[in-house]
Each structure stands twice: as structure tokens, then as C-alpha cells.
Amino acid sequence: MSSSPDLRTGFPRLGYGAANVGNLFRELTDDESWAVLDAAWESGIRYFDTAPHYGLGLSERRLGAFLQTKPRDEYVLSTKVGRLLRPNPDHDGGLDTANDFHVPADLRRVWDFSEAGVRTSLEESRERLGIERIDLVYLHDPERHDLELALAEALPALEQLREEGEAPMIGIGSMVSDALAAAVRGADLDLIMVAGRYTLLEQPAAADVLPACRETGTGIVAASVFNSGLLASSAPRRDGRYEYGQLPDALWERLVRIAAVCDDHDVPLPAAAIQFPLQAPEVRSVVVGGSRPAQLQQNADYAALEIPEALWQNLAAEGLIQASVATI
């Protein structure tokens, strides 16, 4: 890319979600994290998303150190507000594995949806990143704290930051469709991050979130498109993890049917998973994770793979995706 992305008219179609470089699920060294980020960049990824929540600030620090070596006008950067990081008086030397991050639990997350809290969160993210301009700021998981307070205080605070030029674009990130739809209709948002609710495997966001975005002109960034890894391989496993528990039988049967249709068209299941959300005009970008350089290059290849229209038509004919998606 030779010029700054125009966020009003375009957005990188593929992004990297930097939770893994915050030591999600397993520890990465600084060198390993750098190699992952470098692979993302070399594969053409130019949108990077992070959050204070990811590794208690480690993701922001590592991502910021990497992006400081790149021309600022050549990438889009987003982070999140809503949780402040503060010293943990109960730290006993253990790790933050209760939140799946392999980092010392010497900090704790403190919810703060006040205007002062939102402003403080953004400023502290800038400091950790070492980057002043953050293109997109999401309110993170508002329903886990207080959705009404989010609508009353946090989102208006983000709107004010955008008015002041401190946050060019604003939104929320959530894996709960009701919260996403309420936020879209309750505030003037640019983009929302829909995590796991609009995927090839299941599309509950199609019932309320997509129509709300269509009405308001709000764009969507689709995240967790592999459904906890279930769609990350062309040969799904029955013992795969589904969010916070075991995979329900009905979803497993649906997954087997989707994989069979993909196989009939010689399309790798992960390629279909990455490209499915982009069939909806409301979806501007798909964010994928990864903790190994090869995964980043593979995901970029999957995103660029030409997929026959007949695949979407067949999936729709079998009731596995909405028929309207197949005709877009």
C-alpha cells in the first residue's frame, strides 16, 4: 500500500487479531511474537486489532513496538476501551490463566464506562502502543459489565472523542447479538466487531445485527470466524472446542454437512470460513488470529483464493447459510 487507507470509503478486507501475541493460550517469546507480526505484514495484512484485555497490555506493547517500524499511513490500528489495567494487590506470582493469558497476573482489569474512564483507557493504550493515532476504538464486551451504562455513558464518550478528532472511528466489540444490535441502534457507530456470531457455521447476527447495520449504515468487522478453531481445518474434529464448552451435536452435524459441500467444490473449509462473512455488504473486514507465522500466510492465501459462486448457492440450498447471501 502506498497511501493511507481512506476509512470512509474502504477498509482492509483482512486483519490480524493480536490476542495471540498477548500470550493467549500459550506463551510466546518476544522474538516469536515479532515473527508472527512480521508474517502478517509480509502476507499483506494491513489492519491490526488489539486490546488492553489481551495479555494485560502485553499485546498492545508488542504490537506497538512492531508497528513503530512501519510507515504510519500504511496500516489501520484499532484497540478497545472499557477495562482499565490497575495493580493487582492479590498477585501471588501466578499467571492470568483464568482469562486464558499466560502472563503474570500482577495487574487486574477494572471496568470503567465513565467518560473519564474511556478517555483514560485510550490514553493508556496510546502509551503502551507508543503510537498516538489509533484509527478505530471499540467499547469492549459492554454486556459483560453493564449494557445500559454503556449506552448512557461510554458510547456518548466515544462519540465525543470522535467529534474532537481523538478517535476517527468508533464502535463496540461483542459476541452477543442483542448487545450489538442495541448499540448500533442506540449510538452513532462507524464499525462494530461481531465475534463468532456471523460465521459459516452459525449466523445469529443475521436476524438482528445485520438489519440494524443496514438501517444505520454501520459497518461490520467479523471476528472469531473459525468458531474457536472448528473451521480452521478442512477435516473438523468432533472433540473440537466450542466457545466455553463442548460442541453441541446439532452444530457438529451442521459442521459435517458444511465441510462436505466445501469438499465437493474443492474449497478448503478455512477459506470458505474466512470469505463467508464478506459476502454480506455490511461486512468490511474479517479479523483472524494466529500464533505461528505459517498460519498468517495460510490465512492470507485462503482470503485470496477464488471461490466459485456455486459453493454459496449449494450451501444456501441445503439451508446452511441464508439464501440472500448466496445471491449477493
Structure in words:
This protein is α/β, with parallel strands linked by helices. The chain has a single domain (14-248, 269-307), classed as TIM Barrel. The chain is 38% helix and 16% strand. It is built from 11 helices and 12 strands. The chain has helices at 30-42, 58-67, 115-129, 147-163, 177-186, 205-216, 249-264, 269-275, 293-304, 309-317, 323-326, and strands at 14-17, 47-49, 76-81, 83-87, 107-111, 136-140, 169-174, 191-195, 219-223, 241-242, 245-246, 283-288. It has an 8-stranded parallel β-barrel with strand order 1-2-3-6-7-8-9-12, surrounded by 5 helices. A two-stranded antiparallel sheet has the order 4-5. Strands 10-11 form a two-stranded antiparallel ribbon. The chain is globular.
